[in-house]
Design brief:
about 425 residues
């Protein structure tokens, strides 16, 4: 056996890799298909309406399920068979995409149809994401979680670089409806392995199904997730830090087109180059993390990465208009250090959070971080119009660094993997 063998962290078989990576590859193809659909729908809305308000509304519609429904979905993920949750989520997303394909092929599609489909696809993701993330910790030995997180970050970088041009190529060759059909094929590639491979379930779920442990109600489980987070000071501290950082840094992608155009006098080629360099940084950072694994104390790797993000953000705001290469360097740093920040933190959560609680906790973390995005955009827009777009980058990066340095002196955060026992056991919370 490998990994830690405890009631909260069941043993992982030595031959874990073939099963896990078969499932992981299928999920990777599904992610690519989803990125193509997202690109195609955004481009269709752009051509159809040319309205920034329409695009902003589409973004909000896609975020709402993650923010509002996510915490409630997480409690259900912890009560249900996670393999079935992933199968049903991927299948449901493919079905609603099929409906949209029909509307495109018959010429009946309207903007509100796209809104509804984007909402339903995001709803499926609100169930699928915590199910896959929490299943990973039951399939991968603890010592390899940081490397797997690095691979996930690398995959995100690959998708960010290649999905847009691939989507543009397909849209140039095929009607939008046929491009969307790619998502159904990739969803099938994700579902088929899950039909034949088992996925370990949390020990308490197995015990309840066997009748050896008393069942709890949905509302008890939902409350248990909130109490678990609150009673674990390191976890709640990292959640608050992540929410604050998302508030400070989320507007960066929305403000980048203005920065490139107004400050560097660039156009679409320059903007595309900046985004590609960011993707290169993510890929190389993911490869480095998956090979190296990070420092022995994962929290050190994560906080180092966050400081690097702050440095990259400040450089973005300070880069002179005649030094475009410095902006490219800043975005390479942002991509590379983002992996160092997110990968180890994901591994910490997967290894330290009780498997029975991971669906709820991951959903709460995602909902809190995602909720900061629309709020920060509402504030960053007027502030940037008033003081200039560079100000938000410099301010956000500086506060990011200061908050992370402060976190280095907070024992609850620095000892997050050791102070988990301060959170009550799920069964005790639910009483």
């Amino acid at each position: 056996m490998e990994g830690t063998n405890t009631p909260d962290n069941p043993p992982v078989l030595e031959r874990w890799a073939p099963k896990f990576f078969t499932i992981w590859i299928g999920q990777a193809f599904s992610l690519i298909g989803s990125a193509l659909v997202q690109f195609a729908l955004v481009w269709w809305l752009t051509q159809k309406t040319g309205s920034a308000t329409i695009l902003a509304t589409a973004t909000l519609v896609a975020l709402l399920p993650q923010i509002v429904i996510g915490p409630f979905a997480g409690a259900l993920v912890d009560r249900w068979n996670r393999r079935l949750v992933m199968i049903l989520s991927d299948s449901s997303i493919a079905i609603v995409t099929g409906v949209l394909i029909f509307l495109f092929l018959t010429g009946r599609v309207q903007v509100w149809h796209v809104y509804v489909i984007m909402f339903l696809r995001s709803l499926g993701g609100a169930f699928h994401s915590p199910a896959m993330t929490s299943s990973t910790s039951l399939m991968v030995p603890n010592k390899h979680l940081a490397r797997v997180a690095g691979m996930n970050q690398t995959l995100q970088g690959v998708v960010s670089i290649f999905a847009p041009p691939l989507g543009a190529l397909l849209l140039g060759l095929l009607p939008t409806g046929q491009v969307l059909a790619v998502d159904i094929v990739t969803a099938a590639m994700a579902v088929i392995p899950l039909l034949f491979l088992s996925v370990p379930q949390p020990p308490r779920l197995v015990a309840r199904e066997n009748g050896t442990e008393q069942k709890t109600s949905y509302w008890q489980d939902l409350k248990g997730g909130f109490v678990y987070v609150v009673r674990w000071p390191g976890l709640s501290g990292m959640m608050l830090l992540a929410m604050a950082l998302n508030f400070l840094l989320s507007p960066s992608s929305a403000l980048m087109p203005l920065l490139v155009r107004n400050e560097f006098h660039g156009g679409p080629p320059q903007l595309a180059l900046v985004e590609s360099i960011f993707g290169v940084g993510v890929i190389l950072g993911g490869l480095a993390l998956s090979t190296w694994g990070g420092f022995k104390r994962r929290i050190i790797t994560s906080l180092t990465g966050i400081i690097g993000i702050g440095i990259g953000t400040i450089l973005t705001g300070l880069a002179p208009a005649n030094l475009f290469w410095l902006l490219l360097g800043a975005f390479f740093i942002l991509g590379f250090t983002q992996v160092l920040a997110n990968g180890p933190l994901s591994a910490i959560f997967q290894s330290a959070i009780s498997p029975d609680m991971q669906g709820r906790v991951f959903s709460l973390i995602n909902a809190g971080a995602t909720a900061m995005m629309p709020l920060s955009l509402l504030i960053a827009g007027p502030v940037s119009d008033w003081l200039g777009v560079r100000v938000w980058f410099v301010f956000g990066g500086a506060v990011c660094i200061l908050m992370t340095i402060a976190a280095l002196f907070i024992p609850a955060i620095m000892n997050i993997e050791q102070n988990r026992q301060m959170a009550s056991e799920p069964g005790e919370i639910a009483k």
